[in-house]
Every structure is written in structure tokens, then in C-alpha cells.
Specification:
Helix content is about 60%, strand content about 0%. With about 375 residues, the chain is an all-alpha fold.
Length: about 375
């Protein structure tokens, strides 16, 4: 900072050249330095507005535990899935369950099983009636229509030839395999994930309880899981359909899927492990157990090891022992409760259930026949006998 008054006075003194100008110039320079170095007096307003300076006490910080005493937070792991490996469900899908939630699934299992067998009995009646009508229509048809040359090389003819080469059991399970493949494709659509988790996976803590008991039977997330189940179903299709018939087999298969899922509900409620399950393993175990119980001397082999053969009775015992051990020891790779429930239902049905349920369908069929004949008679074009 400069002092303009003192510096101009020094220049005037030195320009005049008077004696003693050096001494006076030194004095003036000393005063200029003192004026520059001395602090400027503060005004009252500046003193009041100047911020207060000093030491402030630091805020007390919470004591932190040492690094050794700090417990690491557990990393959440996705739950394991039963009957297949599938991605973790949405956070909103998880919940708790109480034993009272098993009432509706139980009533649904009983009602659906009765409806399935009743519908199968009516379906068999209509199928037999249609076959009889077709037979008489073909007998009355002109023999020249049968002698007409058929087209060769047509794609439709090739498909019909392949279809006719299949057994009745293979033709029956073709629709089931197609339904499983369709649901498998739905899992690949990102926009369908929440719907698939809600209605195509079974879990007693889910908001949907009854419909997943049936829909989860046709649901697979893993391609290998679906391929293995469908291969087993295709392999046993001829035996089970020749044993039960097409209509009765469909009723048993659908009922087995619902019943095995209900057994899985009970096991999850008892153990407190509410994990989603999916797959056709429970219904397929019913088919396998029914065939092995009815024909225990049949020879079976493993899919990847066809050189090792064993009897059907031994295979059924090994499967039941494996699923029982898995359920008792808490293994979580498969839904062992659903497998065990399906196997026990298949053994019970071919032993007692066939006589108890299917052989007593005559009152229902007779009532349906009377209803059909009455409705046809009212129409004016049918016969009453």
C-alpha cells in the first residue's frame, strides 16, 4: 500500500535541491514506511460486523466398533427351487403362510379330481357313441369313394401317415407335450415373468393358491428338465394308456398334478420353507408308479445309461426311498414331497382307486345318457332309445 502524500513531498524536496534535502528525504521515507506498515484503524461498524474468530468445540462422534468386532452383513442368497431351477421371484411374490391357507387348496384338489373323473366318464361315453356312428356311416358309404386314388406326395398325407403310425398312448400325450412346450416359450418372454411366477409356480405363501396347482404341472423353466420329463412320459405313454384308456389316463394325469402339488403345500407348511415349485414331475411319478406297480417284472433302463437294466419294481422302491430320504433330510434340489405324493397316488390308484372311482361311474353316465336323449327328443329329430 502506498502513501501518496509523503511520496509527492519527497519528490518536491528533492527537485528544489535545498541543503539538508537528503536528511529530510530520509525522514520522509521513514514516515512513508511507517504509514504503509501500520495497520489502518477499524471503524465501529466494521468491528461489529467482523465475524467472531476462535476455537469451537468439535461435535462428539458416535463411537465406532473396531474392525475386528464389526459383524459382516449376510449376503442374501436366492432361494432354491423345487422340481426345477428357476430365477428368483419378484420381491412382492414372497410372503408368509398360515395353516388355514390349506383349506382352499384341499377343497380344490377334491373338487378338481371329482370333476376330472366325471368329465372323463362323459368323454368316454361321447367317444364310444361317435365311433359307433362313424362305423355305420362308413358302412353305408359308397364303395366307389373308397376306391378313389389318393394324392401322393402331399404334406398332409405325410403328417397323417406319421400320426397313424403312433400308438394310442403316444397320440394322447402329444397334446400334453405341446402344452408344456408352449408354457416353456412363455417363460422366455420378459413381460410374462410376473404372471408366470404368480400362476405357473406353486407356493403356499403366494396370493394365488388353487390355479397354480394345475398350471405348474405344465410349467418348466429349464430345457433339460422339460426334455427329461417329456421323454419319460413318452416312454411310458403306451403302457399307461393301454392299462387305463385314453380318457381315464387324462383324468389320472391331471388329478395327479393337483394332488402332488397339495402334498408339496403340506410339506412346505410343515417345514416353513416357502419356495416356488414347478414341473410335471409329480404327475409323471404317478404314471411311472402306476406302471411299475401293475407290471413289476418289466425291464427299465436309465436315459443316459441304457446298458444297465433293472426291474420296474426295484426302480419304484429306489425312487420312493430316495424321495423319502430327501424329504426327511431337507434336501432342496427337488420337490421331494411332490414326487413322493405323485408316486403314492399312482400306487394307490391302480391298486384301489380304479375299483373305487372308475368302476362306479355308471350312475353318472346313465344320468348323462338320459339328459342327452331328452334334449335330442325335444329337438324333434332324435330317437329316445
Amino acid at each position: 500500500m502506498r502513501c501518496p502524500t509523503t511520496s509527492s513531498a519527497i519528490r518536491r524536496k528533492m527537485s528544489r535541491g535545498r541543503p539538508g534535502s537528503a536528511r529530510e528525504g530520509a525522514n520522509m521515507a521513514w514516515r512513508c514506511w511507517a504509514c504503509t506498515a501500520a495497520p489502518r484503524p477499524l471503524r465501529l461498524a466494521e468491528l461489529l460486523l467482523q465475524p467472531r474468530r476462535g476455537f469451537r468445540r468439535a461435535r462428539p462422534r458416535p463411537e465406532e466398533p473396531p474392525a475386528e468386532a464389526a459383524e459382516p452383513r449376510p449376503v442374501p442368497q436366492p432361494p432354491r427351487r423345487g422340481r426345477s431351477l428357476c430365477p428368483a421371484p419378484p420381491a412382492s411374490a414372497a410372503g408368509t403362510a398360515s395353516p388355514g391357507r390349506l383349506v382352499r387348496p384341499f377343497l380344490f384338489a377334491v373338487g378338481f379330481t371329482g370333476s376330472a373323473f366325471g368329465s372323463a366318464a362323459i368323454w368316454q361315453y361321447e367317444s364310444l357313441k361317435s365311433r359307433v356312428q362313424t362305423y355305420f356311416e362308413e358302412a353305408r358309404a359308397d364303395w366307389m369313394d373308397k376306391m378313389r386314388p389318393q394324392k401322393r406326395g402331399d404334406f398332409r398325407k405325410q403328417v397323417n401317415s406319421w400320426w397313424n403310425s403312433l400308438t394310442e398312448g403316444q397320440r394322447t400325450v402329444t397334446g400334453i407335450i405341446a402344452a408344456n412346450a408352449f408354457v416353456f416359450c412363455l417363460w422366455r418372454l420378459p413381460g410374462m415373468r410376473r404372471i408366470m411366477f404368480t400362476y405357473f409356480t406353486s407356493n403356499p405363501s403366494s396370493k394365488a393358491l388353487c390355479s397354480p396347482m394345475l398350471l405348474s404341472t405344465f410349467s418348466h423353466f429349464s430345457l433339460f428338465h422339460m426334455a427329461a420329463n417329456m421323454y419319460v412320459l413318452w416312454s411310458f405313454s403306451s403302457s399307461i394308456v393301454s392299462l387305463l384308456g385314453c380318457e381315464q389316463f387324462i383324468a389320472v394325469y391331471l388329478s395327479a398334478g393337483v394332488i402332488s402339488t397339495f402334498v408339496s403345500y403340506v410339506a412346505k407348511m410343515a417345514t416353513g420353507r416357502f419356495e416356488p415349485s414347478l414341473g410335471a414331475s409329480g404327475a409323471i411319478m404317478t404314471v411311472l408308479a402306476a406302471v411299475c406297480t401293475k407290471v413289476p417284472e418289466a425291464k427299465l433302463a436309465i436315459i443316459l445309461l441304457p446298458m444297465f437294466t433293472f426291474t420296474a419294481g426295484s426302480a419304484l422302491k429306489a425312487i420312493i426311498a430316495f424321495d423319502t430320504a430327501g424329504l426327511a433330510l431337507g434336501w432342496r434340489l427337488f420337490d421331494h414331497a411332490a414326487h413322493l405324493g405323485g408316486a403314492l397316488f399312482g400306487m394307490w390308484y391302480v391298486t384301489y382307486g380304479h375299483e373305487l372311482i372308475w368302476k362306479n361311474r355308471e350312475p353318472l353316465v346313465k344320468a348323462w345318457h338320459e339328459l342327452r336323449t331328452k334334449s335330442t327328443g325335444k329337438g324333434g329329430g332324435g330317437r329316445s332309445d
